[in-house]
Specification:
The chain is of the alpha/beta class. It has one domain (4-234): 3-Layer(aba) Sandwich (Rossmann fold). It contains 6 helices and 12 strands. α1 (4-13) runs parallel beside α4 (89-97). The chain is globular and about 55 Å long. It starts with a helix and ends with a strand.
């Protein structure tokens, strides 16, 4: 990985001639995304993210923190104890420059299970980090091991069924060889193309079934305006 998302975040934070990111998936055309979107304030966030931040309590783990906007809102406005993690060294450096107190470069799967949390946040299509449906159980078991008694995992995603064509009977023309929310993702920044990586969108019923199969309760907290939703997983 060339860490292009992280480079864009650090460029924006340090005023180093940031450019738009170009993102493309296996079922969508190339699209431009302003890096400023990752630096939005609480008031600029969509309602599902705002709801998740309102529900956060106790000690918080922000998984895949990116530019750290969720962490900053909880740390500075809610005065919560937040640990932020990301696999991007550049993103973590930007978070440090933004004043995040506790941020480190690590993969959620490598996090020490001696540290447990009251709230685990995984936002901006949090299920994306699972990669594929087959990998979901491994991540859910890890997340479960990091929860305090009474703790919660707040995670969002979208049902991508609307992206697929329907036949004359109304049935969706989805791939027969895998789950329709399994995408490949490609990022371009300043003319450099990052290696393609898997990214998973889970419809709520599939997330709920996976949660139950891994010993977790699953509750639908809120639905967005375009097939997106926020869910809470708990012990």
């Amino acid at each position: 990985m060339k860490d292009l998302f992280g480079k864009a975040i650090l460029d924006y934070q340090t005023n180093n001639l940031p450019e738009d990111l170009i993102t493309e998936t296996s079922i969508s055309e190339a699209d431009e995304m302003s890096v400023s979107h990752l630096f939005r304030t609480y008031n600029e966030m969509p309602k599902l993210e705002q709801k998740a931040l309102q529900l956060a309590k106790g000690s918080v783990l922000d998984v895949g923190c990116g530019a750290g906007s969720h962490t900053l809102a909880l740390q500075n406005e809610r005065k919560l104890d937040v640990t932020a993690i990301d696999i991007s060294e550049n993103a973590v450096r930007a978070c440090q420059l933004r004043g995040i107190k506790n941020v480190k470069v690590t993969n959620i799967l490598d996090l020490d299970e001696e540290n447990k949390f009251d709230t685990i946040l995984i936002l901006m299509n949090g299920t994306g980090i699972f990669g594929t449906l087959n990998e979901t159980a491994k991540y859910l078991q890890k997340l479960k091991s990091l929860l305090n008694v009474g703790g919660q995992i707040l995670i969002d995603s979208s049902d991508l069924i609307y992206m697929y064509d329907q036949d004359e009977d109304g049935a969706y023309c989805i791939p027969a060889d895998g789950y329709y929310g399994e995408l490949t993702y490609k990022v371009q920044y300043k003319g450099k193309i990052e290696d393609t990586f898997p990214w998973l969108y889970l419809d709520y019923n599939t997330l709920q079934n996976a949660a139950i199969a891994n010993g977790l309760k699953c509750e639908l907290i809120e639905e967005g305006e375009h097939f997106d939703y926020l869910a809470k997983l708990s012990l």
